[in-house]
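2024-03-11 09:14:02 INFO worker-7 job=invfold-0412 stage=load source=structure_tokens
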């Protein structure tokens, strides 16, 4: 009888959609699995903007990884940071523990916010990748209105109530719409000296239209819905510089209480350290079977990888694609453990795309069938509840949304944490490395656990 220590060791980096999918499909496989992540929780990232704009609290969209797999006997969860891969020795280098040997390695480390060579902008325009990012944005948005309430200069007051969102993809559109609803519908009765309905929300996109991955008709519909919410949509806008409370365009500088970044992703520091071929966004170019060229028994999936599938389709960086790649990688690993050659190349099954703009507003493309408005919003609501991890949380989130829908109330409008530069200062103090979806402080113990937040 083979002892547990003699079984093949599969190491999975990252507890996102892709990593969880690999674990799920390796259940009952004769192997040892170790999942490593800097956080102790899986995050339902598509709803992160709801936390950033006080629609939901952090525990509504996150669940401890250990609790998800408590019944899976062949899995061990390790909270640590991977800082390198020794491919010759088949060892994973960890920050806090000795090197960990592996027989199979799956890189499901996600991606980080892309500032297109201007990483100094991060200090002034936070991205939205983690719960910490969402809490920082929520803090800054609410504090801007608090400062505006006491500002005596009308110009300063209006500046504080102005929010700039950079990037017209799904993240930027959803964030801009949610900020507009927060300012113009939710906060209207909370203040006495300011009229939050006069708040300005600007969405800046470098390309000729928002939601460039959608059809022109859906892009136009999203623009119309954003403007109905009071968002000023500006396309073909080249960002020259971002400073504290200011975005510099060609021939114009716009001051704002908050600048938020939703303009793309790039590969992680760990992915870049592998020395393999990358695309322009520093994501790993993988083989048709999701394996990493030049590295034996190493796979990359989800946002960490770039791949055109067997049908020539560029696999998008969305959660359904990560889950499909995770399932595929697990099946390939099972074949390899049985001594079989790689199976058929990966083929992405596109089940459709959707983006929410706000209450009763969304756009959806379900395999060529396009719809907008309330029906698209209902579809978006159903799909997101369907994929929320944890049966109880689905009901809690549904009740929260029904209440918010009926009353325009958001119950998570708490201002907590440090000043707006706290997170960035911690990064500079400790240095930064990647595991999961963004840059995190070097010493995880310096920050309070993300799930300690009280809704």
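2024-03-11 09:14:09 INFO worker-7 stage=emit residues=455
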């Amino acid at each position: 009888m083979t002892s547990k220590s003699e079984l093949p060791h599969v190491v999975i980096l990252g507890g996102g959609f892709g990593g969880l999918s690999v674990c799920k499909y390796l259940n009952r496989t004769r192997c040892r699995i170790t999942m490593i992540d800097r956080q102790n929780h899986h995050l339902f990232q598509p709803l992160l903007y709801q936390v950033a704009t006080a629609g939901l609290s952090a525990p509504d969209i996150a669940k401890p990884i250990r609790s998800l797999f408590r019944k899976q006997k062949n899995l061990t969860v390790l909270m640590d940071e991977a800082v390198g891969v020794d491919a010759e020795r088949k060892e994973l280098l960890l920050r806090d523990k000795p090197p960990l040997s592996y027989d199979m390695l799956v890189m499901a480390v996600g991606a980080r916010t892309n500032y297109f060579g201007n990483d100094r902008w991060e200090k002034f325009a936070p991205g939205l990748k983690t719960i910490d990012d969402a809490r920082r944005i929520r803090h800054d948005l609410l504090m801007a209105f608090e400062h505006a309430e006491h500002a005596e200069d009308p110009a300063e007051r209006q500046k504080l109530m102005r929010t700039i969102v950079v990037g017209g993809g799904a993240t930027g559109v959803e964030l801009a719409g949610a900020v507009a609803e927060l300012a113009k519908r939710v906060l209207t009765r909370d203040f006495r000296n300011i009229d939050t309905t006069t708040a300005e929300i600007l969405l800046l996109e470098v390309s000729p239209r928002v939601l460039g991955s959608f059809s022109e008709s859906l892009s136009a519909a999203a623009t119309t819905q954003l403007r109905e919410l009071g968002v000023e949509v500006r396309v073909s806008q080249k960002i020259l510089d971002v400073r504290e409370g200011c975005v510099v365009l060609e021939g114009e500088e716009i001051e704002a209480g908050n600048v938020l970044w939703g303009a793309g992703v790039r590969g992680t520091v760990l992915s870049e350290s592998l020395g393999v071929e990358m695309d322009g966004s520093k994501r790993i170019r993988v083989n048709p079977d999701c394996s990493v060229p030049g590295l034996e028994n190493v796979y990359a999936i989800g946002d960490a990888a770039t791949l055109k599938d067997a049908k020539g389709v560029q696999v998008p960086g969305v959660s359904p694609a990560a889950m499909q790649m995770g399932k595929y990688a697990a099946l390939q690993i099972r074949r390899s453990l049985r001594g079989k050659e790689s199976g058929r190349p990966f083929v992405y099954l596109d089940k459709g795309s959707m983006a929410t703009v706000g209450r009763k507003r969304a756009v959806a493309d379900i395999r060529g069938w396009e719809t907008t408005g309330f029906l698209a919003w209902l579809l978006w609501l159903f799909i997101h509840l369907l994929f929320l991890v944890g049966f109880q949380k689905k009901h809690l989130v549904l009740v929260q949304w029904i209440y918010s829908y009926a009353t325009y109330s958001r119950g998570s409008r708490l201002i907590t944490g440090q000043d707006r530069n706290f997170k960035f200062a911690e990064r500079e103090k400790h240095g930064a490395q990647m595991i999961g979806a963004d840059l995190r402080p070097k010493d995880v113990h310096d920050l309070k656990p993300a799930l300690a937040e009280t809704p």
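2024-03-11 09:14:09 INFO worker-7 stage=report msg="The chain has two domains: 4-113+266-337, 119-263+358-417."
2024-03-11 09:14:10 INFO worker-7 job finished
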